[in-house]
């Protein structure tokens, strides 16, 4: 998922690339920020 930034803060499994809910959609990866 997307938490408002270029990276997620949680919610996905580590290493899984997801499509963010931002516009325009962009790939996001799990990182503990």
TrEMBL record:
GO molecular function: serine-type endopeptidase activity
Single GO biological process annotation from the record: proteolysis
Pfam families with a match to the protein in the record: Trypsin
InterPro entries per UniProt: Peptidase_S1_PA, Peptidase_S1_PA_chymotrypsin, Trypsin_dom
UniProt name for this protein: Peptidase S1 domain-containing protein
Species for this entry: Bracon brevicornis
Domain Peptidase S1: 1-31
